[in-house]
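Need tokens for this chain, all 616 residues.
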Amino acid sequence: MAHTENKKISVAELDFDAIKSNLKTYLEGQATFADYDFEGAGLSVLLDTLAYNTHYNALYTNLAVNESFLDSASKRSSIVSRAKEIGYVPYSATGATARINITVTGTSSTPASLTIPANTPFSTSIAGKSYNFYNIDAAIAVLSGSTYTFTNVDVKEGSPLTFRYTVADGAKYILPNLDVDLSTLKVRVQENSSSSVFETYNNQENILEIDSTTPVYFVKEIEGQLYELEFGNGTIGKALANGNVVTLTYMTTNKADANGARVFSYQGPTLLSGNVAVTTVIAATNGSDIEEIDSIKYNAPRSYTSQNRAVTVDDYKSLLFKSYPEAESINIWGGEDNVPAQYGKVFISIKPKTTTYLTNAQKSLIVNEILKTKNVVSITPEVVNPEYINLSLNVTAYYNPRITTRSINDMKALIVQTIEDYNDNHLNSFDGIFRYSNLTSLIDETEESIVSHIMTIKLHREIEVAYNTNQTYTINLGNPIYASGVPEESITSSGFFIPGNVNVMYLEDNPTNKTTGTIRMYYFVNDIKTYVRTFGSVEYASGTIVLNELEISGIDSTTSGIFELFIKPQSNDVVSVRNQLVFIPDDQINVSVIVDQVATGDQAGGSNYVFTSSRN
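Here are the structure tokens for all 616 residues:
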């Protein structure tokens, strides 16, 4: 009876062996196979076949279903397709853009104005490889004296291409090249091949601004990272008619390869037989690759939520990540959360992919072009530079050479690589947190011969100096500073000069108690500190340092050449707040490796153990 009751087969298992076991259990519940030896009979082969077929179909179905959802999809084509359903088009590859001035002198004639046509080439070279840049729009200069000066001309790296389609039923309008920079795409339509009248079509994201006569096109990414254009249907956007000719001009690009180019030479046709000189205003930047799939999965749902407007923090992030692909990390906060509070503002800080800070021109583009028509009218966006909290790490590792073939130098290199990997994977972004215990665990796991290690950290905060100006500097670390309550320096500085004094000056804190302290200035005479004055204040718990009325005339050239504070943190964990980024520079990683003689058995009881201080 026990066998006849078990007639249902389980369908929850996906593992091959579990599927086969379920089939056997089902058959054993039938009276016909009650005492059947499945392993010793030919029916076992049939069960293997059934289990294989079931397992294969289950696996295929699981993968197919996963590709139907943005969160679980792994193929780019599936992710792009899911993103398209919510109106998101992944950003394309982008060519590096530079800003130049062009002067033309010694011309054979002197008309009132001179024009450099669009798509005029300018060449440059990086690491021995040549790149061509082109001005997207024509530039016009007015004669001044005997010189024509073209100012602030934007040039973009790439190769200009032109493609034409004749409109017909079922025709597809595809850009047949990889690495297309969609920002350079221009679409013109003429009534037929013999017409001399061209109508310009524009890309439009907001269908509320489109009627049946609006000349627009829409872009979508298709298989193979190519792009296809779609046009209006006569209800949403102007429809094309058979026989129309669509002309597409665009550029393909080398993406980030040309970033940093700063020396350009004119390669276009002669300009009135004159001499052409090019000077660089802004070096080439913003070249980037096509949007990666992880970025698409992150940005697409947020772009849909924002509905092409900037109201919430996530709205701003989504718009900026999509419209400014050069951004590596972005942080947004309201004026009410700023220190000090500034109501009616929203603050934006961007860490670029290839540089440390945005230029003024890039900040202006973000505020006046990307956000101007999308943010709330009563809110003023302001782009502020990131502030870097550099960590200085001193690591002393103890290891047992009897269980490894690696030398001390090998061990040191491995530990340095571990720290650099931690920095790349967990820091250098606005949401990065330096977690002391996580890094110490990784260091211990670097090599099995590492017995233990001691690591101390110190914060380095660079300060931008207003030279020869009596200035108040306020530094909000957002991290508590170590406070012992006794005269023990937690804050020191690099060397600098003040007007009327030839000595190299330094700063240090002087604790009043465990809560507050002052800042005092001093210089050395025969290695003895001579104090000049006490000024400024420190709030240890909040990590706020104020340097009152400090006038700096120069920086000590024997040091780093920058003015920075060196700070002992209260906690070994360091967080990023607002526009701060925690970062471990390669030159601030100091590693030493010591043989642990206790672990090797060369020293009994640790009587001559080499101690390393755990304090800075």
